[in-house]
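Example record for the data management plan.
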Amino acid sequence: LMLIQCSHLYKFFGPLSLFADVSLSISEGECFALIGKNGAGKTTLLQLITGQMQPDSGSFSRASNLSIGFLPQETLL
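Corresponding structural encoding:
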């Protein structure tokens, strides 16, 4: 069962392209890690996966029964 599927995602912040043509799929039972340096787009990709943010282009789908938890690295005070 495919839980998350994205194809050809693009995300821009002004003129800066954070990612271009990113494709990803996560199936039931799979584990994955998101590793990269600061500013690489890890948090943005997680926000796309959770639906907190939308891609500028590309397709993204989640299984309808999927529940995702996300703990932000910074808290609002």
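Summary line stored alongside the record: The longest helix spans residues 42-50.
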